[in-house]
Amino acid sequence: QVQLVESGGGLVQVGGSLRLSCAASGTIVSIGTMGWYQQVPGKQRELVATIGSGGSTNYADSVKGRFTISRDNAKNTVYLQMNSLKPEDTAVYYCNAGLSYRDPSGSLYYKNSWGQGAQVTVSS
């Protein structure tokens, strides 16, 4: 089986920085686009940033110039560097990735996977 495991959330003051990490584990064959989403209570999960397998990136307008998404393909890991944090960035952040993997019999599968979520709280 495969999974995404997040780390790096926490409490930070306005203007501070945090870095989120999300590592894929299991019998990974390949990983497609990886991304980060945020969700606040009572609202739908919203896109923050994505990065393609070749490194192309896409950002929500609200985070452009402040957040940077990157990936380390050798480590099957995606990062989100968050700078100049604002109170409105407070949310649970989820990583997402399309994972191709093999089961013990060698059969190839694809799974759109989500991390467990990381709370980011920005205090004013």
Report on this model:
The chain has 124 residues and is mainly β. It has no helices and eleven strands. It is elongated.
Give the gist of this structure.
This protein has 124 residues and is mostly beta strands. The protein has strands at residues 3-7, 10-13, 18-25, 28-39, 46-51, 57-59, 67-72, 77-82, 91-102, 108-114, 118-123. The protein starts with a strand and ends with a strand.
Looking at this protein, list some descriptive labels:
124 residues, mainly beta, 7-stranded mixed sheet, elongated
Helix-strand pattern: EEEEEEEEEEE
Report how far the terminal alpha carbons are from each other: 41 Å
Proportion of residues in β-strands: over 45%
Which consecutive residue ranges, at least 5 long each, have pLDDT under 50? none
Taking the sheet with the most strands, its summary is:
7 strands, mixed
Number of discrete helical segments: 0
Write the layout of secondary structure elements.
Layout: E1 3-7, E2 10-13, E3 18-25, E4 28-39, E5 46-51, E6 57-59, E7 67-72, E8 77-82, E9 91-102, E10 108-114, E11 118-123
Parallel strand pairs: 2-11
Antiparallel strand pairs: 1-3, 3-8, 4-5, 4-9, 5-6, 7-8, 9-10, 9-11
